Amino acid sequence: MAATAPRPGNVFDRNCPSRPVLEHATSRWGVLVLGALLGGTRRFTELRREVDGVSEKMLSSTLQSLERDGMVEREVLPVIPPHVNYRLTDLGRRMARHVRRLYQLVEETLPDVLAAQDAYDRRRR
Amino acid sequence: MAATAPRPGNVFDRNCPSRPVLEHATSRWGVLVLGALLGGTRRFTELRREVDGVSEKMLSSTLQSLERDGMVEREVLPVIPPHVNYRLTDLGRRMARHVRRLYQLVEETLPDVLAAQDAYDRRRR
DNA sequence: CTGCATCCCATTCGATACTG
DNA sequence: CAGTATCGAATGGGATGCAG
Q1: Full-model pTM
Q2: Domain edges within chain B
Q3: CA-CA distance, B57 to A45, in Å (whole number)?
Q4: CA distances (Å), A20 to each of A14, A24, A37, A69, in order?
Q5: B8, B19 in Cβ contact below 8 A?
Q6: Which CATH class name applies to B18-124?
Q7: What is the pLDDT of residues B89-107, one digit of tens each?
Q8: Cβ–Cβ < 8 Å for B11, B22
Q9: Cα distances (angstroms) measured from residue A51 to each of A64, A110, B75
């Protein structure tokens, strides 16, 4: 019963099923999609514009992962042309708020980070 | 002056320098390394054990990224055999606390997530 | 013990073209 | 509009061997 022994259900354990879930939410595009959806319901194309640089393919697969994990709800309106809405679930909103704090902190402290990078690179030459 | 126009320094903008920093901290191993270091100073091998499944190579490169970004401090003790300590900087600790809330939320809500996954998979067949 | 260098594979990712 | 299909490029990541 060592204090550091891996427990099942603990994300530090290799086989913990939390890991893939966490990875979907913290993935390159997952973070930004969650953040964008904090602004409210969005259509596919709106997300594509708001999350600058994401490809159709990656947006699609990111949304599918988040939907499967119960973070995002998908609503298909039976109209032509197609109209699909994405919104956060309650769980998704809780995740998204934490995620937002993360990238906001990075944005706020960016000057410090850039300075640290510069110092590191100079130290290495 | 549209409300959704990309601003420089905004992580939603394709060229925002925050993006790679955020990606280091939210990477598969970055999250767990930050979380482990919240427990205090750790040696390389201790991290290797605590972050179950990480390879030497990935732990090494993860620590380098985090050090370069000013999240982690590295202390080399001039002894034989080598002894290297890693600890969070103030900025790293702030990041790590947010990161921890993220994976703790995932751990806590895992049953809901697994149920959502199951429902999604059944819906698809 | 701590890591770097190398090799190599699997997966991810992006661009493009196409469909309902 | 909202995707899927496909393909090549890039990256992530593991295994091994070696050095300080």
Answers
A1: 0.92
A2: 18-124
A3: 39
A4: 11, 6, 21, 10
A5: no
A6: mainly alpha
A7: 999 999 999 999 999 999 9
A8: yes
A9: 16, 20, 39
- In this prediction, residues B34-54 reach a mean pLDDT of 95
Contacts of B4 in chain A (CB under 8 A): 49-50
* Cα A34-B11-A27 angle, rounded to 5 deg: 45
Type of residue at B112 = D
Portion of chain A with pLDDT greater than 90, in percent: 87
The residue written with tokens 């960016």 in the block is: A110
The DSSP secondary-structure symbol of A88 reads E
Distance CA A54, CA A59 (A): 6
pLDDT averaged over every residue in chain A: 92
Give the pLDDT of residue A91: 98
**Nearest by Cα to B47 from B26, B35, B79:** B35
User: Measured in angstroms, what separates residue A87's CA from nucleotide C6's C1'?
Assistant: 46
Report the chain A residue with the minimal C-alpha distance to residue B53: A14
